[in-house]
Amino acid sequence: xxxxxxxxxxxxxxxxxxxxxxxxxxxxxxxxxxxxxxxxxxxxxxxxxxxxxxxxxxxxxxxxxxxxxxxxxxxxxxxxxxxxxxxxxxxxxxxxxxxxxxxxxxxxxxxxxxxxxxxxxxxxxxxxxxxxxxxxxxxxxxxxxxxxxxxxxxxxxxxxxxxxxxxxxxxxxxxxxxxxxxxxxxxxxxxxxxx
Amino acid sequence: xxxxxxxxxxxxxxxxxxxxxxxxxxxxxxxxxxxxxxxxxxxxxxxxxxxxxxxxxxxxxxxxxxxxxxxxxxxxxxxxxxxxxxxxxxxxxxxxxxxxxxxxxxxxxxxxxxxxxxxxxxxxxxxxxxxxxxxxxxxxxxxxxxxxxxxxxxxxxxxxxxxxxxxxx
Lengths: 195, 169
Description:
By secondary structure, chain A is mainly beta. Chain A has 2 helices and 7 strands; from the N terminus they run E-H-E-E-E-E-H-E-E. Chain A has 2 domains: 8-37; 40-187, no CATH class.
């Protein structure tokens, strides 16, 4: 009989289980890290039109309030204000955005967190409905043509309660959302808040 | 011969038998089964499925996917890469281990930006990747057993002259 070779595809069980377990360990690790800290780094949200930020209470430090004009979802230049804070602790945070699906239906994406802590917050708001209190508030005017330098408002601490803010841009250097829940719901029509 | 060596030999024999059985089942098989035999078919198929599932969420949120810095864009990237890796696993079976490792890595990372296709995509990706890693092509050699036995039984000095290399030299 002549010597000959044939090839057969085969799955090695030992290799499979090692790879399988390694994959699940990595998955457990990454979910564990997110679950424990609820942390996402450098999270910007913007350029998609208005979205709504609601919370019960916010306590921030090194607050800066700058008027500016900026792009919104349906306009190139609209007057708005930029809020800057070094750090902020928020309770009962609720961010939501209405999106139109290709089918024509509307959905609302909710992000809810019972408590959140943020470092390096920058937020551009078109409309703010809230109770505000400041410490060491200073309002400064400059003879400048630059709208962002013309008039500024600074405070060492700020406390905002029962807020509804129509936001167009949000940036956080570091955000920790404890017990965050993300959900979607169908809605009949989008929410429109006019100032 | 030590016990360990015997066990190893037994294992090898069993594996060879298993492969032979598989080979025999392949002989009368159709074209598709033969094509499947030459590549990590189930690994690649599950990888493709995982890629589609990972892509599902970014496709639903495409309205915000292309905003600079949006994590949804990362979901698109991971889903697309998993699809490409799955397709490549069909055509380059020799690299199946590498494709498997990449699939597992991307599937786990797809939790960010695409929620791993509601986790199901990630789990299917891990299974598909593991199947790709575990897949290999084994060679079965067919030799005439009777010939082998005869050579083994004869002592060196009794071998025919034409086979004796020292004399030929």
